[in-house]
UniProtKB/TrEMBL annotation:
Keyword entries, A-Z: ATP-binding, Ligase, Nucleotide-binding, Purine biosynthesis
Gene Ontology terms, MF aspect: ATP binding; metal ion binding; phosphoribosylamine-glycine ligase activity
PANTHER family: PHOSPHORIBOSYLAMINE--GLYCINE LIGASE (PTHR43472), PHOSPHORIBOSYLAMINE--GLYCINE LIGASE, CHLOROPLASTIC (PTHR43472:SF1)
InterPro entries with a match to the protein in the record: ATP-grasp (IPR011761), ATP_grasp_subdomain_1 (IPR013815), PreATP-grasp_dom_sf (IPR016185), PRibGlycinamid_synth_ATP-grasp (IPR020561), PRibGlycinamide_synth (IPR000115), PRibGlycinamide_synth_C-dom (IPR020560), PRibGlycinamide_synth_C_sf (IPR037123), PRibGlycinamide_synth_N (IPR020562)
Family of the protein in this entry: Belongs to the GARS family.
Protein name per UniProt: phosphoribosylamine--glycine ligase
Enzyme class, broadest EC rank: ligase
Pfam families in alphabetical order: GARS_A, GARS_C, GARS_N
EC number(s) reported in the record: 6.3.4.13
Source taxon at top rank: Archaea
GO BP term, pick one: 'de novo' IMP biosynthetic process
Recorded metabolic or biological pathway in which this protein acts: Purine metabolism; IMP biosynthesis via de novo pathway; N(1)-(5-phospho-D-ribosyl)glycinamide from 5-phospho-alpha-D-ribose 1-diphosphate: step 2/2
Domain ATP-grasp: start-end pairs: 115-332
Amino acid sequence: MKVLIIGEGAREHALSEALANSSEGYRVFALSSYINPGIRDSVIRTGGEYILGNINSREEVRSAINKVNPDFGVVGPEDPLFHGAADEFRLNGIPVVGPGVKGAEIERSKVWMRHLMWKYKIDGRLRYRSFSSLEEASKFLMEYGGSVAVKPAEQVGGKGVKVVADIQAYLSKEKRRALSKSVDEIGSLVRNDIKIIIEERVDGPEYTLHVLTDGHTYLPLPLAQDYKHAYQDGIGPETGGMGSISGPKNLLPFITQEEYEKTLGIIQETAKAIESETGEKYRGFISGQMMLTDLWGPTVIEFYSRLGDPETSAIIPRVTSDFGHILQLAAEEKLSKAKLEVRDEPSIVRAVAPLGYPLRRDLASGKILELDLNALREKGCKVYFGSVAYEGGRLITKGSRSLEVVALGNFDEISRTIDQCINMISANTELVYRTDIGRRLSEQIEKAEIVRYSYVNRAKNSSLGSSADWSPNGGLW
């Protein structure tokens, strides 16, 4: 069977490798804007073909489909989904993993997502206001006294989020004035009419549950946690993700089985609400970027319409069943036949980027990477290639996160293993990465216990979701 994968990053490397390693004997074809070394290996090993083109162009996706005539497809990143890549497969009668444009709106528009959750009364929802006028958004920030998160109203690659907590009253006006000045910057990231969404601020440990669905069956993957901030100890600008952890088993050290099941229920309800709202079954990955809060317990921060990156690199190496075949079953709406088996051992991923990322991607581009994959494997690490191209036999950086280095085992031990493995990678520039990923988990466990005590008491008092700050007259949309 032939499978066509759309995308070019570490997530797609992991997916293409799962397909290439499948006992089903797939031939892997790929459409990317540059040659990813890992995807290239999957293509060569299986006798497929690498096609270069614009993954966000529906016409070029259609051209690749006509050229390959695949038995099924897999769309990795969000932007091709927003532009109708999955719809193009289905219009040609080809099964595909990935929602259509209508379903992908759950990620593309934060305002649509919040409206959907309120309309269908889905637990874990936050109060919000949306603004087309940047002036009105700034005015609201100056007048409203509660703690808020200010975000671009649509998906812009994890950029632009600003948060202010009103814990020190004497700093409130200065904080709010500084935040209101950020509104123009945040709004400039958005192309559509609605520019800004302001949400009530919540706090707690974050985690992600990715769920694969064919519109009938829901297959939850192990939990993962993404580390978005660029620099050590969670400071600096937000990125697509500087690392991730997953496990042990299906959980994380600070999330319970009951919270996992509650999160799955929220995601299932949301997928069904999307179908009710759009008239189309949601098919593909739907992923809840969650926070454990005293307001609701499991609380939705945002949704992905695809697998997260680098969360994928933390999850797929832990899967012992044939994940490539599971993708085929999902595409063909036969997911009820799938069985997912996962290692008990946890995993850690650390992203490695050239100096300059994330603020000066021009400086991070065009650098040469050198690494010995066999030596890294022997040391206990797996590498997924991200924003790095295979050009003339060399690995050339493209300006973003170049590598994702993964190890499985005890958290403390594999932290040290990854330290050693990253030291074996060289480049003609300094490499940047975070060494705190997967460390100091006791702090998150303690934070989760405090939050859990609060939301359990709220549940007993039937006050889950209630917020004095965001009353219907004071802030709720």
